[in-house]
Amino acid sequence: MKITADDVRHVAELARLEIDDGDIDRFARHLGSILEYVESLKSVDTSNVLPTAHAVLTRNAFRPDDAQPSIDPGGALGNAPETEDGYFVVPKIIE
Question: Is residue 33 in a domain?
Answer without folding.
Answer: yes
